[in-house]
Write a structure and sequence with these properties.
Blueprint (H helix, E strand, L loop, with lengths): L28 H11 L15 H10 L13 H9 L5 E4 L2 H25 L12 H14 L6 E7 L4 E12 L4 E8 L16 E6 L6 E3 L4 E2 L4 E3 L26 H10 L2 E2 L2
Parallel strand pairs: 1-3, 1-9
Antiparallel strand pairs: 2-3, 2-8, 3-4, 4-5, 6-7
């Protein structure tokens, strides 16, 4: 089986097997982490400590994930800001077929992987050592980097529980597939391993496909807590200079979308764009 060819700075990878079904697909992260390791001198994410990445590896990863907690550079969002002027409403990416979606998923996975390596190297800290307590800045870095690579359908979303005052941030990317007909989101949780017991395992950079506007994201089966999001920041909010702090960091979404996330997704699915 031959690799899927992906443009630089991303690595080529073996297909992920989406022809077996889309709804509920979960990327085999362990396999693709091993594939990444084979391409970069057998570097293991678990082995990275602060300041230990070789400068060539760091350079490679910062090409894949240039926007992050140590480099919230507004200039990296220039193309996203320009796009937002033309498309201020929620959008989905128009995808031709599963083969195109496979290529997207492999690139999105690599943004999450590279962010994880960068975070470990710099020793990201947000009250706790990465990944603990770092879901917000991590999601902002991943979302901004996805925008930088033209994934303008990426959004920073937040689950929030008023009663328990619990929150969790992750990214999702609405898409509309032509053949077979399918509407859904790619969900990437860059700090899933701080809290997840998915399939009774701690999963790093959990990536899955969810169908339609209503779905569950349960990472703690023992608590049965559904992390379906409440707040969303999408690229359209960058229009007119909104959505970005003075220091270049994307804002944290903390206001209910008018009509809720289901309405947001309905609007995105009705506005598919070729990206």
């Amino acid at each position: 089986m031959s690799n899927i060819s992906i443009e630089k700075p991303f690595f080529d990878f073996l297909p992920i097997g989406l022809m077996n079904g889309l709804d509920g697909f979960i990327l085999n992260n362990k396999f693709y982490e091993a594939e990444m390791a084979a391409k970069n001198g057998n570097l293991q994410l678990d082995s990275i400590r602060k300041g230990t990445l070789h400068k060539n590896d760091l350079k490679q990863y910062e090409q894949i994930t240039p926007y992050h907690m140590k480099n919230f550079d507004r200039n990296l969002l220039r193309s996203a800001i320009n796009f937002a002027q033309a498309y201020p409403e929620p959008i989905a990416k128009l995808v031709e077929n599963p083969e195109e979606l496979e290529r997207d998923i492999l690139k999105i996975f690599q943004v999450g992987y590279a962010h994880y390596a960068i975070a470990k190297h710099y020793g990201f800290w947000n009250g706790y050592d990465f990944p603990d307590g770092c879901c917000g800045p991590s999601t902002r870095g991943i979302t901004g980097s996805l925008w930088h690579h033209g994934y303008f359908n990426a959004s920073h979303v937040v689950y929030f529980d008023d009663e328990d005052f619990l929150d969790h941030a992750y990214a999702f990317l609405p898409f509309v597939m032509i053949e077979p007909s399918f509407e859904g989101v790619i969900l990437l949780d860059g700090t899933s391993d701080q809290r997840s017991t998915i399939n009774k395992k701690h999963e790093r950079n959990f990536l899955t496909i969810k169908k339609g506007k209503t779905w569950n994201y349960i990472v703690r089966p023992d608590k049965n807590s559904n992390l379906y999001p409440r707040f969303v920041l999408h690229i359209g909010e960058l229009a007119n200079g909104n959505g970005i702090k003075i220091n270049g960091e994307i804002e944290t979404p903390n206001v209910d979308y008018n009509g809720g996330i289901k309405q947001f997704l309905a609007e995105a699915f009705s506005n598919p764009q070729r990206l």
